[in-house]
């Protein structure tokens, strides 16, 4: 038995010999990155619910390449996991045939086609998140919460012209800029509507960077907010005990009004407030279903799917490198904008507002609120800013949905 016979048995190894050096280096780098994400998720540095399945999927997909390319899209190499380009041809008849063919081969293709590429999984995640949100934090301090959330959209707004400078179209630039909203489901939804050709890289970059906010934003806060201001204690919020009926009515009115104004984003807006309404309605079986199985199964498959979509071919696309830079820039600008809003609130309140809560306006629920409380508690163990941070956090979800609706409506 010669070496060629042995390599024919172990096709994954043989594909390295048949691929250019750049592709091989990208595959090895992504395998190592996937294992690193799993390690950081296990240690709690990154969000384990998302990073562990994403990391394993990323490492596995780049190790599982074989000589298999039924649609002739990748130069004779492929995997048995998922084909994101299936059904994207110009001919509707041929595309439908290709999609049906791949559905019978790739084991994750049904999940991608029927829940991922149409935004259904994003809606499921939003339902689960909504079932965990207490809108009472927003109702108690609506003006402060919305003020901070609007400032935290700094990256969402200003990344658009920067992306245009890099040569992306207006639609593509708007989809990329939504990464700054730090709202994963909203990024998925907007990229599907505005730039489906960049959907996969935008989704992968967005969730990869969102996982880094918990580890990265504390350094941003410490670099921009001095310890004296980070330690400012905030007065306990006034006792405003909203009834479940009032919260339910608030959620229902917000849902209807926002859907009326931005019908293009109605599926996600409805999903979020549906979860809130179920939470406040007292229907325990539904709430347990949304906050348990639906949320966790959706999150698991979301992370897994993002991982297996992160192939070397995706990273080597010339359009992806600027996207990597724009994604981190967008989140950085949003974090800075939120802290600027926090400083303005501190100034206008004559020192009663801790500027750190501005970071919670970045709508990565509840991660950025937890980051704010963690930083403040480290410098002043007696300070409690979580109720204020959660109000800004929930408002951030709403402002991101509004901006997504504006982008999808105005940019044709």
TrEMBL record:
Main localization category: membrane
Keywords tagged on the record: Cell membrane, Ion transport, Membrane, Sodium, Sodium transport, Translocase, Transmembrane, Transmembrane helix, Transport
Transmembrane segments: 25-41, 48-68, 120-140, 146-167, 198-220, 248-274, 294-316, 323-346, 388-411
GO CC annotation: plasma membrane
BP terms from Gene Ontology: sodium ion transport
Subcellular location, record wording: Cell membrane
Keyword rRNA-binding: no
Listed Pfam families: OAD_beta (PF03977)
Membrane topology: Multi-pass membrane protein
Molecular function per GO: lyase activity
Protein name as annotated: Oxaloacetate decarboxylase beta subunit
């Amino acid at each position: 038995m010669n070496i060629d016979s042995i390599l024919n048995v172990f096709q994954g190894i043989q594909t390295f010999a048949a691929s250019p050096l750049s592709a091989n280096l990208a595959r090895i780098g992504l395998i190592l990155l996937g294992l690193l994400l799993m390690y950081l998720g296990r240690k709690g540095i990154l969000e384990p619910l998302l990073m562990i399945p994403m990391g394993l999927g990323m490492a596995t997909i780049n190790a599982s390449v074989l000589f298999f390319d039924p649609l002739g899209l990748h130069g004779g190499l492929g995997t048995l996991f998922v084909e994101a380009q299936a059904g994207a041809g110009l001919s509707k008849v041929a595309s439908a045939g290709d999609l049906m063919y791949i559905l019978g081969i790739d084991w994750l293709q049904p999940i991608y086609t029927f829940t991922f590429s149409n935004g259904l999984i994003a809606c499921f995640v939003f339902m689960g998140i909504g079932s965990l949100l207490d809108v009472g934090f927003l109702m108690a301090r609506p003006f402060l919460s919305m003020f901070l959330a609007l400032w935290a959209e700094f990256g969402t707004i200003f990344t658009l012209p920067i992306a245009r400078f890099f040569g992306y179209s207006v639609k593509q630039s708007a989809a990329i800029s939504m990464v700054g909203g730090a709202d994963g489901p909203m990024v998925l939804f907007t990229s599907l509507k505005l730039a489906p050709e960049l959907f996969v890289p935008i989704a992968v970059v967005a969730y990869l960077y969102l996982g880094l906010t918990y580890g990265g934003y504390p350094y941003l806060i410490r670099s921009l907010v001095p310890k004296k201001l980070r330690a400012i204690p905030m007065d306990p919020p006034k006792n405003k005990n909203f009834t479940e009926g009032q919260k339910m009515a608030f959620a229902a009115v917000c849902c209807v009004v926002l859907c009326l104004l931005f019908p293009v984003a109605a599926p996600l807006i409805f999903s979020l407030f549906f979860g809130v309404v179920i939470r406040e309605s007292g229907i325990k079986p539904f709430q347990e279903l949304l906050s348990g199985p639906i949320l966790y199964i959706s999150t698991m498959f979301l992370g897994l799917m993002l991982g297996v979509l992160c192939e070397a071919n995706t990273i080597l696309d010339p359009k992806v490198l600027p996207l990597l830079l724009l994604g981190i820039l967008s989140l950085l600008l949003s974090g800075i904008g939120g802290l600027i809003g926090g400083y303005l609130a501190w100034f206008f309140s004559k020192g009663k507002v801790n500027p750190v809560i501005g970071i919670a306006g970045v709508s990565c629920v509840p991660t950025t609120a937890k980051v704010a409380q963690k930083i403040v508690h480290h410098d002043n163990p007696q300070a409690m800013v979580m109720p204020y941070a959660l109000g800004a956090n929930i408002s951030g979800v709403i402002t991101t949905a509004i901006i997504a609706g504006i982008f999808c409506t105005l940019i044709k």
